[in-house]
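Z., the sequence and structure:
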Amino acid sequence: MTSLAFSSSFSFLRNDAVGGITFRSPKVLSRNRKLKLKKSACRYATKTTSLGVEGARASAEVLEDQTMAKEARGGRVLRVGLICGGPSAERGISLNSARSVLDHIQGDDLLVRCYYIDRNLNAYAISSAQVYSNTPADFDFKLESLAQGFGSLSEFAEHLAANVDIVFPTIHGRFGEDGGIQEVLEKYNVPFVGTGSRACRQAFDKYDASLEMSKQGFITVPSFLLQGSEVNESELSNWFVTNKLDPNSGKVVVKPTRAGSSIGVTVAYGVIDSLKKAKGIIL
């Protein structure tokens, strides 16, 4: 099946990982510890309270007490910051990813702290219980009363630099996979799991990433870029013919260049149907 990508003036959300390749930050490689991923529920969670911001602060104090207690039992505790949410429509998927990490991480030498970024890029320290809420809407409206908010992303990054040893980002789409959160963490020298900001930016755009992968010698699916209203039907028809597709019924995938695989992706048949569906997604 052939791929048909498009872009527009709209800000789309996310790109898939390129070629299934897993990248790791040099900062992470330099660590002498690593996360222990296992198949049992995490045991570090603090209890959810209904005491508003003071309750959130109390929870933070409990985490500090847990850290001290674990260290007293022997050895240093690796403090992990788990960040989920984000401004894209994939916040719910991000929560699923965060839950998966929580479900498979444990150890007396690990302490996990959870953080949430809302649609307006406001950062909050949340309890693990909030991560297990069904959808972001289940607790978004409670954040100001139940979570510790940060005045800015800079303040949030400073907090991470002082309170965690490594960050595990699980934000999908914009700000999570386009290098946004990675750039913030790099600026404040906070080690994190995953790809660095520069590589994220390069891979986020499906069309540009495909061109780069092809340039590096990888086999890629042929693609054609449609940019907003600048659509040349004859050029697209020639592309269909060049790639041995019937201009009237050739099967292609139409998708945004900068969004997730589950958002705005559709199958089209022929040039006319492709243009119609591309314009519909852009609008």
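The radius of gyration is 22 Å. Confidence is low (pLDDT under 50) at residues 6-61.

Let me know what you think.
H.
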